## 1
Amino acid sequence: SWSDPVEVDACVLRTGVDSLDVRDLDGDGSLELLVHVKKGLEVFRFDDRDPVGNPVLYRDDSERSRGLQFADIDGDGHDDWIYLSPGSDRSVRTRLWRKSGFGPECSHAFSSRSGVNLLPLGMRGKGEPSFVAVEADTEKITLFSVSPKNDPPKDSTVWNPLIRDLFGSGDEEASFTTADFDGDGHLDVIAASPSLAEILFLRGRPTGDFSTPSAFPSFHGISSLVAGRLYEKGGMGLVVVSSKEKLAGVCRHIPGKRFRFPVDLPLKDDPVEVVCADLDSNGLDEILLVAKERYDYLLHRFVADKKGRFSEVG
């Protein structure tokens, strides 16, 4: 069962899905709550379930900065903070961990339109951490690493992006997710536009590119797509959320054929956001869905039975 929530008083959060994190910053064996707020980064410490004292604030004067990526970039055994300040020609920012907190900000001569994705052990699985981003001027995908100094990113590798025109320029913001949906060992892509009542399936190929998209009927007004290990056999399952139809459903790929139309989850409230996670460590994901009931937001948990039918559990 779920424990009662713990409430903390934080400043106004920055917009985005990467404004919260939980990690052991100082290596004392206890986890801290990290909250990226408009004033900077707030760090909350806890004694069991009780906040200890006031949060520590590391000020960040760039109103547009975002991101909570952590990696040991100076080799001292402690994670350092990497984030972006979009719109600047030195948009990659780092703050090194110094004994009891983060030091001053360093900026690096790299401009990115996107967020930064971390490869903790580099591209080859060993060595210093690397980062992947979209370079602002060329719009090319770039792999780079940063030093503890204000140096430009080094050892940059650049790829031309593989571009697929899936939706019209006037469409609303699309959703997408990646996973091996057909069980062939290659990552596939599923995308959806809120203006269409369908999903687009791009099958992954051994060469690293994708097939032309195939359309399958689905909800109208899709606002979220999430992949999860929902079934014991076959590829990954797909959770589809429609904010317009106020529905959430699950579908999967039929080998060699098509995607089924989503089967509704038994939900009376309006779905807002969804994730999949294996909370009970049985090898299969549960569906965790946040829904709005009038003025409250509720967390629902759905699990599948042996026949693949989902029901809500406490």
Note: The longest strand covers residues 296-304.
## 2
Amino acid sequence: MRSEDDDRSKRVETERFKAYTYEELTARDKANLDITWLRDPSLDDADNLPAPEVLAAEIVEDLQAALEEFAAIAETLQQARGEGPTAEAAPVAD
């Protein structure tokens, strides 16, 4: 999340950051500033889309699985530092 103090207009050019004007960018060969979204051809037919409640349940399931994996990683890191219940390294799921 960006801080309110993170005003990008106040950035100073450095070795790793250089500001370019719109004219400099469009003058480049093959410059293209068009924004396009990649389309998923399997979603073109709205009649074959899963029901919203099915999509919501799948999203919840995916997020819960991801949370469990991150919790296991956090526990392993705590144990490696000697902060967890045991100092043994817990196996991490692939």
Note: The helical segments are 22-26, 52-80.
## 3
Amino acid sequence: MSDSSFFQSATRVLKENLPMARKSLIIGMGGSGMKGILAARSQIEREMPSEARTYMRWIGIDTTDIGTSIEGKGESYRFPGNEQFHQEDRRMLYIGAPTPSELSLSYLKGLRDNDPAYSWLPDPDIYRISTRSGQGANQTRALGRLAFFHNYEKIRGALLAEKQRLESMSNDPAYFRLMDVQEKSAVELLDLDIELKPGKTRYHFADYVPGNNDILDLELDEETRTILCPHIPPEKISPDIFPRDDKGHYFEINPERAKVNHLGFQLKHAPREGQISIFLTASVVGGTGNGMLLDMAAMIHDIFKDTWPAPKLYGIIVLPSAFKRVVYNQNARANAYAALKELDYFQSGNPFQATYPNGRQVQLEDRLFKDGMLYLLDVENLSGNILQDRDQVQELTGQFIHTFVSSTVGGAIEERMVNDSTRSSIYFPEDGSEPARRASYNSFGISRVMYPVPILREVGFKLAALRIIKRFHESVNEKLLKETFGDLNRGLVRSLRLNCALIFERMYPDYQLDWKAEFNGYRDRIQRSMGSADRSGVVSILELMRRDYGRGEMEHHKDRLLRRM
């Protein structure tokens, strides 16, 4: 490859191959679920800038005390409450959901008989469910669901805060590309009259439109165009001619110098928002994730029911074969069987309904997970290849999540969703009506090609540095150099209409105070001399000023001002 073509390739890497990410909520329930999302998070942290990592909200929910959690050992966490967003780019949100401290027979009977929200509890006289406080759900699905109900308000409040945080984030980040950004077709016109306020020089257009709306186009009235951009013809005016920062496009003006009080614009704006992808992962063997999965999916639907665009909800379920030590455990097998039967029931057109401790009722007529959005993860694939242990399965879960939230592969996988009659089972609703669909599930395997962007970026930087150093060793045409700098100087001021006074004020905001301090002494002496009609005194002061601010002294003052700037 020639030097020039390699340089062009490196330049493309630097300019165009920004990382990609989706607004995401990644929720792991129970030990297996948490370990799966931690595997994904470790991969994301190696490859994504910190700005992109804040768009991915990692949430672990477990009944086990975090201090004794094997899966969470050595990790950094943030917790619901005042510090929920502390170091959010580096910490996972941990929602502790312990079972009630008392699980006596009388307590459980009281819940079951007196609170409609707990009418689902197994009859304590027949089924004994118990565990020690802080020790998890003891591989009992009913305890996992009881823990969810017992901590319902805390879980819901934390998820609402994460949702609001995601929705407040910009859809046009600076250091990565945000995927799944959607725009509504309904465009609104806004006739905007911006009042200029003393002391304020920067005005953001986003402050005048609804929070989720993006500015598509704008027009300036003639007076505004003459003040802000007289060198740009009206037909070429667009939002992109204005500078932008984290809040969006803006303009700067000093109202005292411009001598105007109002500027007129017409804005075209429309709702534009990044779609949120939500991942729920758990195993069907234990008690925590197994018992919480359905209610968590229902809570997500309830929280996001009025959100536009509607989020994508994925479920990743680890099957019993991944747990060699417990696959022959009778309780674990019963857990898995019950969980899969319930999933199949609700995936086959039967409505989900539940009443929660605060009286909130959730009813879903649609399926909890759409076609192909519920993934069942086994240790053996269709080719007969087998993963060796649970850690490899959880690593595969992490790779799946990582692939979906940081690349375009997720959309391609969805397009190949099955609904394949050769692999589906039919479950008829209880009312005797026709099934709404075949109960189809998905699975996955991952094959990746690593594209070493950081290495290529470093090569590009080194190559650019080498070319600069080579240029330093070449002879310089002094005349051409002076002409070039002169053209640049004149061209920048003329073509870009640089406001040198505004630049000076921004770089040296205290110049007026310093000038007053500099000249107040002269002013006071002149006023005293004039008050006493001392003409010779006035003349001597003016001569003193001419001496203090002569040509050489002015150069000295200019150097001092530049140093202060």
Note: Residues 11-15, 418-425 have pLDDT under 50 and may be disordered.
## 4
Amino acid sequence: MIKQSENLREEGNTLFRKGSFEAALNKYLAAAQLSQDNSVICSNLAATYLKLQKWDDAIRYCDRGISIIYPERNTQKALYVKLLWRKAHALKSKGLIHDARITIEKALDIDPTNRTLLLDKQKFESEDVFFEENAAEIISIPIQEVDEIPNSFFTLTTDSKLDSIPPSDSNTTKVFPNIPADETNYPIHPSVQFLSTLGAKPNSMSLSYYKYVMLVDPNEYRNIYSRSGVDLAFLDFFLDACIYFIENNQLEYESNITELLSLFRSLPRFSLTSTFADSKKVKLLSQLFTFKLQKSFNSFWV
């Protein structure tokens, strides 16, 4: 299994060097599923998500790699610094200049003479100072009293496919066209690799796949993930689907959502995998469960 994972990673490296980032991503995700505690693969995934401008995904895999390597950071300095550097640039791309600056400083603690890090630190410091000096003019948030929580309270704040998906028409109960009997695109018995790549599908297909992941037989998930536990990339996509349905009051999927979350929580390694899930999505789902489902999200997650 380790050899197979390394072969997939090497194939991903070849595709990455050719600029085929989507194809490389699929290889790295498959490799990560076979070797979930491999910090090098996490670094590869972070680099690929940076190229694809998926900043939150890049940060998540940087954090995962950092947590794996942290106990041995002094003996694996190069990889540890690389993960911190990639995280810093993802944070900067999200506009989180101060956080990016702090992350670069952590990398410099390990490699204080690294010229690239020193140049980035200087650049981030100047941008951070500029932002702080102009924050009062840049940010102006009106405060008002409301009688109930507005729908905008539940707006997703992460870089997600949800941002580009229009809300469903509240006057219709048919959210999706019928899913075609297409075993290639909508397999009845999906593989781990197929599920892990759903997040990389075009935005135009996201709605159909949101419904698809809710309608897959739970026993299929149990069989697929019974040994390794649910895959992080798939879990992230599943959270997007949950958010979409609840935000848009498609509550006919409520039982599917809660049943599948309970199933995933019962599988091996979920307590570890869930810690790397997008924290903003988890927080948003907790709010949605409370205010729209009148349920505790933690009872299905923790």
Note: DSSP finds 15 helices and no strands in the chain.
